[in-house]
Structures are given as C-alpha cells and as structure tokens.
Amino acid sequence: MSTDSSSSFSPSSLKQAAAEKSLEFIQDGTTVGLGTGSTVRYLLEALAQRVQEGLRIQGVPTSQETAALAAKLNIPLVDDEAAWEIDVAIDGADEIDPQWNLIKGGGGALLREKIIAANAKKFVVIVDAAKQVSALGLSFPLPVEVIPFGWPSTARKIEQLGYQVTLREKNNQTFLTDNHNYIFDLKGEEFNIPSEVAQQILALPGVVEVGLFVGMTSALVVGSPQGAIVYHHPPVT
Question: Across the chain, what does the average pLDDT equal?
Fold first, then answer.
C-alpha cells in the first residue's frame, strides 16, 4: 500500500489497510466467506497474492460480482450448492454502531451476505473509520430486500410503520438483486434498537431480509489514520 502522505489518509487507503489487516484471520486450508463491496475488493486483491504464494483456501462469495472478481484473480471457490463449513467470513459494512450492529446492503447483496455470515464460525467486519456511527440510520438508509410480487403493497405496510420507502433504481431501471428481488431503502428515525426494527419489518409478508446485522460481528478491523486496528470485543458500555 502506498505511503504517500497525500493519499495515506484517503478513504480508499483506509479501506485497503483494513482489508489487508484482515488477512490475519485467514489460515491455510480454511474456507472463507467473501463479502461484497469496495473494501472487499482490496481484500480479494491481497488474498489473490497470498494464494499465488501458496496459501490454500476456498472462497464462498456473497454475490455474483464477488464471484466474478475472485475467479478473475484465480481464488478457488466452493460450489454454490455445497454444504458449507465456513471458518471465517470477511465483509464490509455501510454503518456500524458502538455495539457492533451493522447496516449492510448498500451493494444489494444483503441476503447472501447474511446467509454466509450466519454460517461462519467467525464473522470479521472491515471498515474505514468513517463507517463508525453513534446510532444506525443517521446517514445511511436501511436496505430491505423484498419480493417483486405486490411490492407497492409491501412498501405501504412498511410506510405504516413510520418509514420513508424508496424503491432502489440503477441506470434508470429497478435494481434487481442476484436473487431477482427488489431493494427498498428506508429512512426514518435512527434505529436505536436494531433487533426490534429488524423483527418488525421482517414480519411483514413480502419482506425477504432486512439489512440489519445484529449481534453477528466476531471481530472488527478499522482502517484509521493511526493504522489498521483489530478489535476482538465491542467496548463495554
């Protein structure tokens, strides 16, 4: 990683520092859940170098985007239909609160990301320091994956809970997830009790998954101007 003072504290360099530091969690012979997003791209590039040097791993990608990049970088992947035994999953986050609860889904892969995180023995989150917030939802909307059938009615039910719902678009078309579903981006009050918010929204018919990851984070790697810092436990509050 460049140490040029003009770029050393840029968001990209902080993401890269966190991603490269997280390689400490990957041991030879393990199966690794590979997240999605800009920070994970740095992880894949660094991991590919280790694989080229002889590290033996298998990756389980959380998205078609990650699968394509991993294949391009010659990172071995496990078949989608395999019964995974994931030793560690590494992924980014859009926001993380002091209790290590997350908002994820900015890249539209929240369902697969949650499946892989839930099936991993350890879930490591890599972020730049700007992703750390006092409460979730202050600056980033909450992604919710929904079935396309009847989506306006699903949106109305969510709005009745007090949230502003926006159907996600990309290139002037409705965004489709890898699972061929839609994404709602929710705004409202900050999500002070994320577990209750997740349960409330997930209970609605038509909702597939909510981009709140509650109590799932095993370790946190933060890229900061002081360097990449590894935390094994959230701070005691």
Answer: 93
Residues 23, 85: one domain? yes
Task: State the CATH number of the domain containing residue 168.
Answer: 3.30.70.260
**pLDDT one-digit tens code per residue, 140-154:** 999 999 999 999 999
Residue at 40: amino acid letter: V
Asked whether residue 178 falls in the same domain as residue 73, the answer is no
Check whether residue 146 and residue 121 sit in a common domain. Answer: no
Tokens matching residue 196? 């209750």
d(CA 193, CA 16): 31
**Distance between CA atoms of residues 119 and 142, nearest Å:** 23
The yes-or-no answer on residue 65 being catalytic is: no
* Catalytic residue of the set 20, 113, 145, 209: 113
Scanning the structure block, which residue is given the tokens 């992947």? 77
Amino acid at 144: V
Neighbouring residues of 115: CB distance < 8 A, sequence distance ≥ 6: none
What is the average pLDDT across 36-52? 96
User: Which DSSP state fits 192?
Assistant: S
How much is the pTM? 0.93
Domain of 72, in residue numbers? 11-132+215-226
Q: How confident is the model at residue 5 (pLDDT cuts 50, 70, 90)?
A: very low
Q: Is the pLDDT of residue 1 over 70?
A: no
Q: What is the mean pLDDT of residues 14-24?
A: 95
